[in-house]
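Exercise 3.2. Students should predict the tertiary structure of the chain below and write it as structure tokens, then compare their answer with the key that follows.

Predict this chain's 3D structure.
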Amino acid sequence: MKALREMFYKAPDLFQPLYTSPVELEVRSLTELWVELAGIKKAAKNTRTTTDDPLAVEIHKVLRCYTKRLATRIHEKAMELPLYRMAVERLGLRGPALAYIISHDGQALEVFSRDRLAIRYGLVARPWRGRSLRSHLLILLAYSATSNKHKRYHKNIQILSREG
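Answer key:
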């Protein structure tokens, strides 16, 4: 018993809870399907952009449609999970990625602090170089806006690049 307790304290992620509700299991399987379908959709999009084949365009459209339908179905089923419903009501978050995190790693959301969760889910790189989490997230947001040419900020960036 003592050895089991020591193993748990060293690697709690290796232990699973003894009870999982049927709804959580269904959401878990649907989100795993969504992850696989998202990877296939990404490959189809890359193929669509590199070739002029109309079949590639059609496949990408079909996969996009099915991914949206699956995301809606995941949201409907995940609303039965209390942690997901709380995130939707209080934070305004929703979607298959949130359902995936809650169904696979729900205990971590209740235990870890905000900074630890940001590191765990890869929102920030581990060494922050003396910056706060808020500062680092703002830098990531600015980088994303500039690299994706956000319509609101792209004009300002072009003006600044001409002046510099």
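Discussion points: Residues 72 and 86 are 18 Å apart (CA to CA). Residues 2-111 form one domain.
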